[in-house]
């Protein structure tokens, strides 16, 4: 796992936006071989979306051959509700880029049969050959997508009851009316996220600091589902200084020192990719 620390949320968005741009361009997606990208909602990814939109407008990036899968959606909230994740994604991102709407996949929290909806979502991901890069955010309780504490670390897309803390945290989007926040959601599972070839997680703000320290300084634990990332071969967490508030000084120093040589290692990986050698055959040490 790599941890990248930037000064503030805007710098985090700049880093991740440019990183995703680079990954998509290196992949060189085509209609036959699209880049499959997993995406989150929430306030944390908004700076990243802004950077991606800018890069599309500057002609440096295109989503024409990108297929997206969103992490989650509330159950029972009308699709056109201002706080549905459908509305959020089109308002904050999709309507500003060149992605064909047919290539956008978001769970339908109003499906007649929610279990079939979840199973067919998994099947669709599989049909595309899996997710290349899953971008995620976390809740204050360390949940990734809506995988609340106690979620199975091998869970798949399913219906999930929200934790009361999450309902309280999300009430800010519903005029602080706790009763208006949906109690259930459809979410990809921790296993679904772990199956992606690469996972990038954005963690900003002091209120996420405890979750970050639990996830990276302690063991893999279902009470902090982000910690499952420790089992992933290619995971990157990008945080701002505020989110490091609960980390040990030596943890911060360690990851900052790792970053110093990261560019050099990445340059070597790039050279091997250019020769057509896949990442798992690079014999120069792993990037995690
Ligand atoms: N289901 C979403 C998560 O996927 C998201 O990571 C979290 C954080 O939101 P924010 O970035 O606004 O703190 O909100 C919700 O709980």
UniProtKB/TrEMBL annotation:
Which Gene Ontology CC terms are recorded?
cytosol
Q: Which residues form the Glucosamine/galactosamine-6-phosphate isomerase domain?
A: 8-219
Reactions catalysed, semicolon-separated, are: alpha-D-glucosamine 6-phosphate + H2O = beta-D-fructose 6-phosphate + NH4(+)
Instruction: Please indicate if the UniProt record lists Hydrolase as a keyword.
Output: yes
* Keywords assigned: Carbohydrate metabolism, Hydrolase
One Gene Ontology term from the biological process aspect of the record = glucosamine catabolic process
Q: Which Pfam families match?
A: Glucosamine_iso (PF01182)
Which Enzyme Commission number(s) are on file for it?
3.5.99.6
Q: Which Gene3D superfamilies match?
A: 3.40.50.1360
Q: What's this chain's function?
A: Catalyzes the reversible conversion of alpha-D-glucosamine 6-phosphate (GlcN-6P) into beta-D-fructose 6-phosphate (Fru-6P) and ammonium ion, a regulatory reaction step in de novo uridine diphosphate-N-acetyl-alpha-D-glucosamine (UDP-GlcNAc) biosynthesis via hexosamine pathway.
Q: Give the similarity note.
A: Belongs to the glucosamine/galactosamine-6-phosphate isomerase family.
Show the HAMAP family listed in the entry: GlcN6P_deamin
**PANTHER family given in the database record:** GLUCOSAMINE-6-PHOSPHATE ISOMERASE (PTHR11280)
Q: What is the protein's given name?
A: Glucosamine-6-phosphate isomerase
Organism from which the protein derives: Jaapia argillacea MUCL 33604
């Amino acid at each position: 796992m790599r941890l990248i620390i930037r000064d503030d949320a805007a710098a985090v968005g700049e880093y991740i936006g440019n990183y995703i741009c680079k990954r998509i361009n290196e992949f060189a997606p085509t209609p036959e071989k699209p880049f499959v990208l997993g995406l989150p909602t929430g306030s944390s990814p908004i700076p990243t979306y802004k950077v991606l939109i800018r890069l599309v407008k500057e002609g440096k990036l295109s989503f024409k051959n990108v297929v997206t899968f969103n992490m989650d959606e509330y159950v029972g909230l009308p699709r056109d509700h201002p706080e549905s994740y459908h509305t959020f994604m089109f308002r904050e991102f999709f309507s500003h880029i060149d992605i064909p709407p047919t290539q956008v996949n978001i769970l339908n929290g109003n499906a007649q049969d929610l279990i079939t909806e979840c199973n067919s979502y998994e099947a669709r991901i599989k049909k595309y050959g899996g997710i290349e890069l899953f971008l995620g955010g976390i809740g204050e309780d360390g949940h990734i997508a809506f995988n609340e504490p106690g979620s199975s670390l091998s869970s798949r897309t399913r219906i999930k009851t929200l934790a009361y803390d999450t309902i309280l945290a999300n009430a800010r989007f519903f005029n602080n009316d706790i009763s208006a926040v949906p109690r259930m959601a459809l979410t990809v599972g921790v296993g679904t996220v772990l199956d992606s070839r690469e996972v990038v997680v954005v963690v900003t703000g002091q209120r996420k600091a405890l979750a970050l320290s639990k996830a990276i300084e302690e063991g893999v634990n279902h009470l902090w589902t982000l910690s499952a990332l420790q089992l992933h071969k290619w995971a990157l967490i990008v945080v701002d200084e505020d989110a490091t508030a609960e980390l040990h000084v030596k943890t911060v120093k360690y990851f900052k020192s790792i970053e110093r040589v990261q560019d050099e290692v990445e340059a070597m990986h790039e050279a091997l990719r250019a020769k057509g050698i896949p990442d798992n055959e690079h014999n120069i040490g792993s990037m995690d």
